[in-house]
């Protein structure tokens, strides 16, 4: 059973999310709240598997809450799935930097939300395929490039190719089709890339690719 904490300051939205999640046999709502500070407090007390986090909320916004729950230096980071809308897309990159395991649009269909929760709970990262290129690409200029003279990447040419496609928002199956490889082989490549670069998930891999000029 995947235990989910839902945090959204809009009561109707929060109620809808709770209803959708609780209707699943493998998901259970551990709690819900309407501001970021409450999300932090509840997450630390309830220890959910996934926190579904809104961005713009009172008391403490979703980005700051995510940083406290999943950011650098957090002893027991919580998996956070950020939900956003197009008019909030300027916050997405900051949410990913704060440690979010992925993001979805608020107008995503219920099955995509449920898939996102399960994906994040499994330890994988989720970048909404509909918005990855637009959101990350639009705000890539905010990513500070690596310093001149910084050590080169330890990746092989094939691993660099896979990383480039990951940064473009392709799934493992799409990368497999693009490079004429099996999905299992692509999965192995992605695991090696994360291990070599000391990255946690695909979200961090995307940021790395932009920061080091692998994607423009």
From TrEMBL:
<dbReference type="InterPro" id="IPR058245">
    <property type="entry name" value="NreC/VraR/RcsB-like_REC"/>
</dbReference>
<feature type="domain" description="Response regulatory">
    <location>
        <begin position="3"/>
        <end position="121"/>
    </location>
</feature>
<dbReference type="GO" id="GO:0006355">
    <property type="term" value="P:regulation of DNA-templated transcription"/>
</dbReference>
<protein>
    <submittedName>
        <fullName>DNA-binding response regulator</fullName>
    </submittedName>
</protein>
<dbReference type="Pfam" id="PF00072">
    <property type="entry name" value="Response_reg"/>
</dbReference>
<dbReference type="GO" id="GO:0003677">
    <property type="term" value="F:DNA binding"/>
</dbReference>
<dbReference type="GO" id="GO:0000160">
    <property type="term" value="P:phosphorelay signal transduction system"/>
</dbReference>
<feature type="domain" description="HTH luxR-type">
    <location>
        <begin position="148"/>
        <end position="213"/>
    </location>
</feature>
<dbReference type="InterPro" id="IPR000792">
    <property type="entry name" value="Tscrpt_reg_LuxR_C"/>
</dbReference>
<dbReference type="InterPro" id="IPR011006">
    <property type="entry name" value="CheY-like_superfamily"/>
</dbReference>
<keyword id="KW-0597">Phosphoprotein</keyword>
<keyword id="KW-0805">Transcription regulation</keyword>
<dbReference type="InterPro" id="IPR039420">
    <property type="entry name" value="WalR-like"/>
</dbReference>
<feature type="modified residue" description="4-aspartylphosphate">
    <location>
        <position position="54"/>
    </location>
</feature>
<keyword id="KW-0238">DNA-binding</keyword>
<dbReference type="InterPro" id="IPR016032">
    <property type="entry name" value="Sig_transdc_resp-reg_C-effctor"/>
</dbReference>
<dbReference type="InterPro" id="IPR001789">
    <property type="entry name" value="Sig_transdc_resp-reg_receiver"/>
</dbReference>
<keyword id="KW-0804">Transcription</keyword>
<dbReference type="Pfam" id="PF00196">
    <property type="entry name" value="GerE"/>
</dbReference>
């Amino acid at each position: 059973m995947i235990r989910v904490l839902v945090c959204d300051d809009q009561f109707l939205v929060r109620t809808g999310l709770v209803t959708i999640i609780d209707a699943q046999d493998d998901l259970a709502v551990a709690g819900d709240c309407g501001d970021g500070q409450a999300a932090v407090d509840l997450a630390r007390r309830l220890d959910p598997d996934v926190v579904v986090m809104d961005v713009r909320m009172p008391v403490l916004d979703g980005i700051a809450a995510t940083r406290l729950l999943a950011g650098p230096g957090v002893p027991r980071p919580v998996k956070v799935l950020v939900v956003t809308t197009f008019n909030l897309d300027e916050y997405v990159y900051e949410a990913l930097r704060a440690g979010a395991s992925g993001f979805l649009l608020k107008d995503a269909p219920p099955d995509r939300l449920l898939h996102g929760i399960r994906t994040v709970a499994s330890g994988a990262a989720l970048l909404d395929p509909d918005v990855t290129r637009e959101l990350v690409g639009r705000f890539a200029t905010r990513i500070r490039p690596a310093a001149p003279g910084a050590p080169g990447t330890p990746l092989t040419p094939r691993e660099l190719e896979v990383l480039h496609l990951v940064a473009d928002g392709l799934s493992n199956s799409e990368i497999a089709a693009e490079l004429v490889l099996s999905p299992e082989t692509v999965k192995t490549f992605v695991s090696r890339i994360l291990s070599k670069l000391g990255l946690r998930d695909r979200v961090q891999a995307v940021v790395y690719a932009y920061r080091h000029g692998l994607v423009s």
